[in-house]
Design brief:
Length: 148
């Protein structure tokens, strides 16, 4: 499982002009599931997202997590995180989990984050989404559960 995480002042996602998810201070999480990902990979990525110490304390040092600051998550499904451009210029998405399985993995990630008392907003799986955000820092972190 992969996540591209951005620290944001705010973020929102719209589908067909309808606001479907929005947060104030927190993390915008683009989440992709790969073939073979299971509960362990999902738990690893969720733990990293919730534990990232990328928010500043009163002294200006980044040492607080989303949990510490009481922030929110906006989780957006993003199979294109598995785009492979090593051959040619057109991405191959062969490494991405099939959509039906990926939707279950995405929903499980959201459910498990909410179970940690985190406010979680979402996009809409398999929709053409328009995502807007104000990246704070900017701070952008890549998380990949793959061990190699």
């Amino acid at each position: 499982m992969r996540a591209l995480v951005q620290r944001v002042a705010w973020a929102k996602v719209e589908v067909d002009g309808e606001l479907v998810g929005a947060i104030d201070r927190g993390l915008l999480v683009y989440l992709g599931a790969g073939k073979g990902d299971g509960d362990g990979e999902r738990a690893y990525v969720l733990s990293k997202v919730l534990g990232l110490r990328i928010f500043e304390n009163d002294a200006g040092k980044m040492d607080q997590s989303i949990v510490d600051i009481g922030g929110s998550l906006l989780v957006v499904s993003q199979f294109t995180l598995y785009g492979d451009v090593r051959k040619g210029r057109r991405p191959s998405f062969d490494g991405a989990m099939p959509p039906e399985e990926a939707e279950r993995a995405y929903e499980a990630f959201v459910h498990e984050a909410r179970a940690q008392n985190i406010m979680v907003a979402t996009g809409r799986f398999r929709a053409d989404m328009k995502v807007s955000s104000l990246n704070d820092g900017p701070v952008t972190i890549w998380i990949d559960s793959a061990k190699d």
